[in-house]
Every structure is written in C-alpha cells, then in structure tokens.
Amino acid sequence: MSSDASIGTPKVSKSDAEWREQLTPEEYQVLRRAGTERPFTGEYDEVFTEGVYSCRACGAELFRSETKFASHCGWPSFYAPSADDNVILREDSSMGMTRVEVLCATCHSHLGHVFSGEGYGTPTDQRYCMNSVSLHLEPAG
Questions:
Q1: Is 33 helix (H, G, I), strand (E, B) or coil?
Q2: How far apart are CA 86 and CA 102, in angstroms?
Q3: 129 neighbors 71 (Cβ within 8 angstroms)
Q4: Active site residues
Q5: Is the pTM of this model over 0.85?
Q6: Which residues form a coiled coil (predicted)?
Q7: For the chain: N or C, fewer Cβ within 10 A?
Q8: CA–CA separation, 33 vs 81, rounded Å?
Q9: One-character DSSP codes across 40-102
Q10: DSSP letters spanning 106-140
Q11: How far apart are CA 19 and CA 10, in angstroms?
Q12: 78: alpha, beta or left, given left = phi > 0 and alpha = psi -120 to 50?
C-alpha cells in the first residue's frame, strides 16, 4: 500500500482551477476532493455493458467489464483493476475508520475504496467500490 510520499507525481497534473474548469461540480467533489456519491444514484451502479471503464478526469484505463459484478451495495463494483499499476492504493483514515482508498495512477484522482473478505466469492475476494462519477464507460465495439 502506498503512502502519500511514495505515490510520486501524477503523469497528468493540472492546477485546481484547471480541474474545476474541466469537471462538473459533482465530478470535482468526488475526483479531486475524495467525496462520495450517494449510493444507488450513479449511472454505472447496475450497468453490465461490455467495455472499458476509464478515469473520468484523465481518460486512463482502470477496469474492464469482465471484472464488474453485482454487489448490490449502491456503487459499481469490480474484483480487480485491468492492470495493477492502473490504480494506487493508500490507507484512508478519514470518517473515523481505516479503509483502503483507490486512486487513478495517472492523475491521482479519487475513485473509491477497495474492500476484502466480504464473501462475494470473486476470484480476488476483493470489491473495488467505485463512484460512477469517477468513471467513463467506453462500450465494446
């Protein structure tokens, strides 16, 4: 797991003003301020279209539809990123609990959190619980 010091400089780096100009207020709050969209409201929560999910902020590939599963938790869930180096995992001690935050490895935007050992029966026993507003789905074909 990465610490703030070990995650390095993002490959895509913009000023706060540039991010605000590019993103909607909701996207900015989640991607750049580590917010969370309300459960069961995101556009990809119950979508199972074949394709590639990329970072809404920078366009980097993050997940593929083959690893998406129905967790019924209110947010899109995946059991693995498309490549381990597409995301950064770091400890998150906010909100009075310790969790593992998931960031885009390219622009360091907040995507969501990853949880283990919840009994979903996925190949990795992990649930990457992502905010829909952090993602963009490019359908296959």
A1: coil
A2: 10
A3: yes
A4: 129
A5: yes
A6: none
A7: C
A8: 22
A9: T-STTTT---SEEEEETTT--EEEEGGGEE---SSS-EESS-SSGGGEEEEEE-GGGS-EEEE
A10: TT--EEEEEEE-SS---TTSEEEEE-GGGEEEEE-
A11: 14
A12: beta
In eight-state DSSP terms, residue 27 is H
The encoded tokens of residue 30 equal 């989640």
Could you report the per-residue pLDDT of 69-86, keeping only the tens digit for each? 999 999 999 999 999 999
Domain layout of the chain by residue ranges = 16-139
pLDDT in tens, 2-54: 445 457 788 988 999 999 999 999 999 999 999 999 999 999 999 999 999 99
What topology is assigned to 16-139 in CATH? 2.170.150
